[in-house]
Structure formats: structure tokens, C-alpha cells
Amino acid sequence: MAQNGDKTQSPEIKEPSPKIPKLHQDENGVQPPSSLSFFKVKKLSDKAVLPSRASPLSAGYDLSSAVEAKVPARGKALIATDLSIAIPEETYARIAPRSGLACKHSIDVGAGVIDADYRGPVGVILFNHSDVDFEVKVGDRIAQLIIQKIMTPEIFEVDDLESTIRGACGFGSTGV
């Protein structure tokens, strides 16, 4: 069961500003060039919660549930956030677990890659590795979204690859 303990914060931690400014377009629908590096978020329902960072140095933006749901024991569920996003080119958004849910309730996240050209609703796949059903309520923080730079070099087919000291040894071979 989701606990309120996850939502409480000590007094010395400042809450993120609940007012997030909207980007404005000019009369032709064009946004200023500097907006290309913004993380743009669209609410798809009144139950959607804008992503927020818990502290100024947080790597991830907390994602919240827009629905009530149950993640069955030893099972999984797709949880709607009722958000669509646009992130800068040459980045991707990675949906990652929240450490408190992982530690206290054995809740993990799966299939967490959102490409920069995806504009559909963001859903979070939660895996419950415990023997107890996990209840999700509207507004519960269920995962975090981390925007990461990526490199997508061109692919070149070759006949051979350079050799290295490690070579083809894998699956624990470096610790032997």
C-alpha cells in the first residue's frame, strides 16, 4: 500500500515552485529559439501532475500517477501519468525507479525509454517484486524521469574490429 511517508519532507527542504511558466508562441505559432532546450509538458487531464524536482540538485523529475491502480504481488501494471512531453533533440527521457518505493515496497520500473520525437501519453510500467499488492492513488509519486544526452553515430559495417586486451570475454570475466 502506498504510504504517505513518501510525501512528507523535512522543513529545511524547499518544495519546488508549483507555478511552472507556460511557453508562449508568437502570432505565427513560432517559439523563440531558446525554447528548443526546454522540457515541455502537456497535461492531458485535470488529474495530471506536472513533473517536479524534489531539490535543486535532483537529477530526476518526479512522475505522479493520474489514476488509482493496483500493482499485483509479483506482477506489473501500466500506470497513466496523463502527461505528454517534448524534450530537446539529442536527448532521451529515462523513466527510473524511486529509491523509496524500491526499498520499502520492492517496486521497480520497466521499459523506461522515451525518444525525443514521441508525443503520446507517458505511462509508467511498475513491477511489484513483493508478495503484497501495491496500491497506487492519484497524485502518488511513482517514478522519476531523467533527461539524458545521447549519441547516435552513423553505423558502418566492417569486416573486422580492432582487438583489445579484453577481447570477447564477458559475463564476469574481468573479475577473474
UniProtKB/TrEMBL annotation:
<keyword id="KW-0479">Metal-binding</keyword>
<comment type="pathway">
    <text>Pyrimidine metabolism; dUMP biosynthesis; dUMP from dCTP (dUTP route): step 2/2.</text>
</comment>
<dbReference type="InterPro" id="IPR036157">
    <property type="entry name" value="dUTPase-like_sf"/>
</dbReference>
<keyword id="KW-0546">Nucleotide metabolism</keyword>
<feature type="region of interest" description="Disordered">
    <location>
        <begin position="1"/>
        <end position="34"/>
    </location>
</feature>
<dbReference type="GO" id="GO:0004170">
    <property type="term" value="F:dUTP diphosphatase activity"/>
</dbReference>
<protein>
    <recommendedName>
        <fullName>Deoxyuridine 5'-triphosphate nucleotidohydrolase</fullName>
        <ecNumber>3.6.1.23</ecNumber>
    </recommendedName>
</protein>
<dbReference type="Pfam" id="PF00692">
    <property type="entry name" value="dUTPase"/>
</dbReference>
<keyword id="KW-0460">Magnesium</keyword>
<feature type="compositionally biased region" description="Basic and acidic residues">
    <location>
        <begin position="12"/>
        <end position="27"/>
    </location>
</feature>
<dbReference type="InterPro" id="IPR033704">
    <property type="entry name" value="dUTPase_trimeric"/>
</dbReference>
<comment type="similarity">
    <text>Belongs to the dUTPase family.</text>
</comment>
<dbReference type="GO" id="GO:0006226">
    <property type="term" value="P:dUMP biosynthetic process"/>
</dbReference>
<dbReference type="InterPro" id="IPR029054">
    <property type="entry name" value="dUTPase-like"/>
</dbReference>
<dbReference type="GO" id="GO:0000287">
    <property type="term" value="F:magnesium ion binding"/>
</dbReference>
<feature type="domain" description="dUTPase-like">
    <location>
        <begin position="47"/>
        <end position="175"/>
    </location>
</feature>
<dbReference type="InterPro" id="IPR008181">
    <property type="entry name" value="dUTPase"/>
</dbReference>
<dbReference type="GO" id="GO:0046081">
    <property type="term" value="P:dUTP catabolic process"/>
</dbReference>
<keyword id="KW-0378">Hydrolase</keyword>
<comment type="function">
    <text>Involved in nucleotide metabolism via production of dUMP, the immediate precursor of thymidine nucleotides, and decreases the intracellular concentration of dUTP so that uracil cannot be incorporated into DNA.</text>
</comment>
